[in-house]
Amino acid sequence: MKIDFDWNDPNRLLRQVHDELRRRGDAIRAVPESAVRAGAFELLAQIKQALPKKTSTLARSATVRFERPEAGSFLARIGTHLPYAAYIEYGTGIFGPRQRPIVPVRARALRWFAPLQIGMTGDGKTVYRSAKTRSGQTTVARKAEIAAIFRRSVRGMKPRPVWREQTAKFLPRYVYLIQRELRKETGGR
């Protein structure tokens, strides 16, 4: 059986998951709190492992928060406080929601700084000028070797939907966790 979830509206997604859980088991009235907690921490670990790790700041910032929005319900929210997480998830520029190139707003060109490249290795890795250290060569660029780059527009960044993909892959495991916790509560019936 194939299930199509609405990933754009988190509240609708939550309703869809609850409806699907009710369809799969008539005994499910409410998901046990222990299943929500176990599932949230397991999903958080999978998301952290799959997030891009240039500096690992995004992975370190991912957290789980538990809430009781109304009597008898228990909710886990997995997310981050970093605003650029949405750019990674949904993409930017022509690859993002607006599907337009990124152009300057108050200037004639975009500007950013990057280390000077001196070539490519045989396996496609970029080689930068390096600074001498006591242990030998490093790939850390010296401050004088950082150059400003100017462009009138850039295409943007392709989306890397880690949160959506990991959640979709986790749903069968979550159903199993709920069933396991229900068996514990009902004494194995």
Describe it:
It is built from 5 helices and 8 strands; from the N terminus they run H-H-H-E-E-H-E-E-E-E-E-E-H. It starts with 9 loop residues before the first helix and ends with a helix. It is elongated, with a radius of gyration of 23 Å. The chain is of the alpha+beta class. Helix 2 packs antiparallel against helix 5.
What global shape is seen?
elongated
Order of H and E elements = HHHEEHEEEEEEH
- Class computed from helices, strands and strand pairing: alpha+beta
The strand order across the widest sheet is: 1-2
**Helical percentage:** 25-40%
Largest sheet: 2 strands, antiparallel
**Rg from Cα:** 23 Å
Question: Quick one: how many beta strands?
Answer: 8
Strand content: 15-25%
Number of helices: 5
Mean pLDDT over the residues: 80
**pLDDT < 50 stretches:** none
Gap from first CA to last CA: 25 Å
